[in-house]
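Re: weekly structure request thread

Next one in the queue (86 aa):
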Amino acid sequence: MTAGLAITQLLPAFHLAGGRRLIGLPLIALGIWSAAASYRQWDANERAILARTRVPRSHLALVVTGGVVLVATIALVLAALGPLPR
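Done, posted below.
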């Protein structure tokens, strides 16, 4: 979430109008989602441990990694286009 906020506020403008938001807002959303999903996973793990059953599998790391890779790819394309002309 912090990286997304910093990108939307501090990064120089890209050639594409709204480029900073295109990178920053998905990172903010991914941070919010991962916080909520992490809590749900922790709760499921606690319940499983107390019930002495198997701890459920989590796809949290895969989703976060995929999201970061996607946003980084978009950032790479925007950076390759160059800065906004003055």
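Residues 23 and 74 are 7 Å apart (CA to CA). DSSP finds three helices and no strands in the chain.
Next request, please.
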